[in-house]
Structures are given as structure tokens and as C-alpha cells.
Amino acid sequence: MYLGVTPSVSCSSAAGNEFSLILDKNPLVDFVEELPAERASLCYCNLLCGVIRGALEMVHLAAEVTFLQDRLKGDAVTEIGITFLRKAEDRKHKRNK
User: Fold this and answer.
1) Which of 29, 52, 82, 92 has the smallest number of Cβ neighbours within 10 A?
2) DSSP of the chain, one letter per residue?
3) Which long-range contacts (CB under 8 A, 24 or more apart) does 42-47 make?
4) What domain of life does the native source organism fall in (predicted)?
5) What CATH number does domain 8-33+40-84 carry, 3.30.1380.20, 3.40.50.2300, 3.40.50.1820, 3.30.830.10?
């Protein structure tokens, strides 16, 4: 939402704990022309993984967020894989009367 793009969602797990966000256009790529040869392993857009993981932690969801495809590495799209590490616990809130 903050980047001005809407990802498509692809569920790739029968267990329902894993899915991918696919970005056809990644605005962060516009700021990088070409990675230097000595920095070819650098994942410039890994910032997005940290933002998503941090947002999920804020709502108490532990997840592993990784890049599966990156346009800077020559892929057609940017794909971010998200795997939830454990189920969210149902918490019952008690009211004091």
C-alpha cells in the first residue's frame, strides 16, 4: 500500500501456512541501475522482507519472509515468500467486573 503497488497472492502450501506476494512492478528497483560485480549477491530489496516481518511481529505472528525471485537478478517479477512459523494462539480476554 505504501509503495503504490498491489501484489497478487499465490498460496503454495496445502497446510495453509505459506504464501507468496508477487509484485509485477517494484518501485525500489527504479533506484538501482545495476549491481556491481563484487556485490552481485546483495539483495537490495531485502528491505521489503524486513518491513513485512516486522509488521507481522507487531500483531504477534512469527513468520519467515524471504525473496524467491528478484527483478534485479533478472527474474520477470519480484516474489516474496511468507511462511508462518506457528499458529496464532486464541487468547480469551477476561473482563474484570
Assistant:
1) 92
2) -TTS---EEEE--TTSSEEEEEES--GGGGG-S---GGGTT--TTHHHHHHHHHHHHHTT--EEEEEEE-GGGT-SSEEEEEEESSPPPP-PPPPP-
3) 43/67, 43/70, 44/72, 45/70, 45/72, 45/78
4) Eukaryota
5) 3.30.1380.20
- pLDDT at position 87: 64
HEC per residue, 35-47: CCHHHCCCCCCHH
pLDDT bin (cut points 50, 70, 90) of residue 47 is confident
> CA-CA distances (angstroms) from residue 27 to 36, 52, 84?
20, 16, 26
pTM (two decimals): 0.76
